[in-house]
Write a structure and sequence with these properties.
This is Arylsulfatase. The chain is an alpha/beta fold. The protein is built from 16 helices and 16 strands. The longest helix is centred in the middle third of the chain and has 22 residues.
Length: 551
């Protein structure tokens, strides 16, 4: 059976149906099914409900006036009490899978306990459907620009000195700096090493970390990883002469980067500890300041290759370098949290805990996900990431499957800085499209609901899939068996191919995306394809911007 629709007819059909649909209130619907059951409409389910355009260059949103009003009142009362805007901390792990942490069913169960992370998560809002981009650099740029990769232009990780693409873009740290925030970046950067894309030149007051990605500093030096390079003087010299930074660095706003130390495998053992100590000192310093702060903290771990130091080697019951790294990441997070607690900063700080993508399945030992696929793919395993938000006294402890994209952190942070909703449009050029949705009222409202209607997925600069509610529609997928004898190992070794048009999955009943229901459940394809076409119209008005890509 052919699965094809006319976009115009779809829009007409859905528009005609919308007035007949009840509001999502988790109450019985008025319609009666064939067997006589009324059924239910549930919160965070917007498949057939219209989103509202609040600004021409911003993603349409699902509006919740009551929770918006409640949230703005809470923020106003807090600012009256503290005398300043809230702080924002983004704690971004590297290549950590959805099920590596205890709050998502991993942790102890998979041999790497995360007790401190889980304890804080239990007092916050655990987001079971939070989405990154398929790989590291695109996700990091998405957080800092509020744009999907197709709009900010960094489609793949820049390697060995490739330039980045943040120059010329409006960034979150710069906007927060303009609002009086102190902006600090610590840890992994990986959005380009060219001077214009370095953190001290795109809005951060201070940076301590490295410019690229963990393996790029050590893989060519390690005889156990790449003996064909490490044991060849000519090849080693060739890599050494490539124009990329090989150091742990420090820089201040507008200045040059200063090398602190050459990053060898031995130095790598303690690198996350060094960054953590720098982070604690920053938090201690800000405790004496009357200014709010934005801390963007990107861990080295647990991207390959992991080199546990003497304290952590064998510390995980799994006794793998990855498991040991997860134990260390738990301690890193705990130390930063305890510093906030000691300094009395928790009452006025939003903490976002997340990962940049799914596990890197091509390089064991690696992280875990209960979903299909891995880093580099748009299967759920590649982009659904472990995430929670915590704010003492402000966020109700609970779990939600409301959809969140990490692009949402951009308008959400700016809401906290005093620019809620459509006001963000006044801070960026009119030619800049913001794909993020302000989720402040979702996070802070009593039983808040997500303000995002749909998640859009991208592969190498092409719109690949869309999700609304529990349904996901693919137009591009990665071939599940690539060029490896053992089969599918992850996203970067797959083959991208176009679907036949009926690839629809129910992520509640089939989280592995193994059995398409597109032919049997054709009605669900109508709103999904409508959303796909709606975003294509956005791309016509706000075209893609490609900087780093895979040809």
């Amino acid at each position: 059976m052919e699965f094809s629709f006319s976009p115009k007819l779809l829009v007409v059909a859905v528009a005609a149906a919308l007035p007949l649909m009840a509001n999502a209130a988790d109450t019985p619907s008025t319609a009666t099914a064939r067997k006589g059951f009324a059924g239910y409409d549930h919160p965070n389910q917007y498949l057939v409900k219209p989103a509202t355009t609040i600004a021409d260059n911003m993603m349409p949103v699902m509006q919740h006036p009551a929770q918006d009003k409640e949230t703005q009142q809470k923020l106003a009362e807090l600012e009256k009490k503290t005398g300043k805007k809230p702080n924002v901390v983004v704690f971004l792990l590297d290549d950590v899978g959805w099920m590596d942490v205890g709050f998502n069913g991993g942790g102890v169960a998979v041999g790497n306990p995360t007790p401190d992370i889980d304890a804080v998560a239990s007092q916050g809002l655990i987001l079971t459907s939070a989405y990154s981009q398929p790989s590291s650099s695109p996700t990091r740029a998405t957080i800092l620009t509020g744009q999907y990769s197709i709009h900010h232009g960094i489609l793949m990780p820049p390697m060995y000195g490739q330039p980045g693409g943040l120059q010329g873009l409006t960034t979150l740290p710069q906007l927060l700096h303009d609002q009086g925030y102190v902006t600090q970046a610590i840890g992994k950067w990986h959005m380009g090493e060219n001077k214009e894309s370095q953190p001290q030149n795109v809005g951060f007051d201070d940076f301590r970390g490295f410019n690229s990605v963990s393996d790029m500093y050590t893989e060519w030096r390690d005889v156990h990883v790449n003996p064909e390079v490490a044991l060849s003087p000519d090849r080693s010299e060739y890599i050494q002469k490539l124009p990329f930074s090989k150091d742990d660095v420090h820089a201040v706003r507008g200045g040059e980067q200063e090398a602190i130390a050459d990053i060898t495998p031995k130095y790598m053992e303690d690198l996350d500890q060094r960054w953590m100590e720098y982070g604690v000192k920053f938090l201690d310093k800000m405790a004496k300041s009357d200014k709010p702060f934005f801390l963007y903290y990107g861990t080295r771990g647990c991207h390959f290759d992991n080199y546990p130091n003497a304290k952590y080697a064998g510390s995980s019951p799994a006794r793998t370098s990855y498991g040991d790294c997860m134990v260390e990441m738990n301690d890193i997070f705990a130390n930063l949290y305890k510093a906030l607690e000691k300094n009395g900063q928790l009452d006025n700080t939003l903490i976002v805990f997340t990962s940049d993508n799914g596990p890197e399945a091509e390089v064991p030992p690696h992280g875990r996900t209960p979903f299909r696929g891995a880093k580099g793919s748009t299967w759920e395993g590649g982009v659904r990431v472990p995430t929670f938000v915590y704010w003492k006294g402000m966020i109700q402890p609970r779990k939600s499957d409301g959809i969140v994209d990490l692009a949402d952190l951009f308008p959400t942070a700016l809401d906290l800085a005093g620019h809620p909703g459509a006001k963000v449009a006044n801070l960026v050029p009119k030619t800049t499209f913001i794909d993020g949705v302000d989720q402040t009222s979702f996070f802070l409202g009593t039983n808040g609901q997500s303000n995002r209607k749909a998640e859009h997925y991208f592969l190498n600069g092409k719109l690949a899939a869309v999700r609304m509610d529990e349904f996901k529609y693919h137009v591009l997928i990665q071939q599940p068996y690539a060029y490896t004898q053992s089969g599918y190992q992850g996203g970067f070794t797959g083959t991208v191919m176009q679907t036949a048009g009926s690839s629809v999955f129910n992520l509640y009943t089939d989280p592995q995306e193994s059995d398409s229901i597109g032919v049997r459940h054709i009605p669900m394809g109508v709103p999904l394809q409508t959303e796909m076409h709606a975003y294509m119209e956005i791309l016509k008005k706000y075209p893609p911007r490609a900087q780093i890509k895979s040809d």
